[in-house]
Amino acid sequence: MNQIRSLLLERGYIVPQGRAKLAVRLGEMLDGDEPVLGSRIHRLVSDMRLLWIALDDRIADLNAEFTEAARSDERTRRLLTIPGIGALNATALVAAVGDARTFARGRDLAAWLGLVPRQATTGGKPRLLGITKRGSRYLRKNLIQGARASLPTMSKSDTRLGAWLRGLLSRSHHNTVVVALAAKMARIVWALLRHERTYDPAAQAA
Known about the structure:
The protein has a two-stranded antiparallel sheet. It is mainly α. Strand 1 and strand 2 (125-131) form a beta hairpin. The chain has helices spanning 2-10, 19-30, 39-72, 74-79, 87-97, 106-112, 137-155, 160-171, 174-195, and strands at 117-122, 125-131.
């Protein structure tokens, strides 16, 4: 999509942001009765649009494959009950973690993913810094993205987790809360895999 936009921009055609607007504009330029582009650039952009469509179809097939794989495995089905955990996250976490008993507690899994804060001691007093960013960058990024997407809904829920998030949001930066939620999700992942349970959001806030 970016390549198509850049080619059109070089020829003076500016397309608004968004894949839907780009698709509509390409339809107007390529499928109309009156030619808008020169024959050579018309063929090039047409070929690129076909490649774009083929990639979208391939991505849809892979997403369906991941979803089916997640539904067919009991462990991934448990993780899919966690808000912010989709098929990609669930299958990747199960493949990476394996036996949850490898980790003694949920914090160990969060630390393995690099989602716990670094500590620096000055004058005998420990200070918490940014997260360690150890372990798999892919898993950590996916958890943070899932936390960012689910934070608005989870922070409004009448649960202990929702109350905890609202308290954090009142005193911390939004990005800090997102990372804290990702670490919490990692702990929940460990608990569900270790104790063979599903996520229960019904616990009411005190």
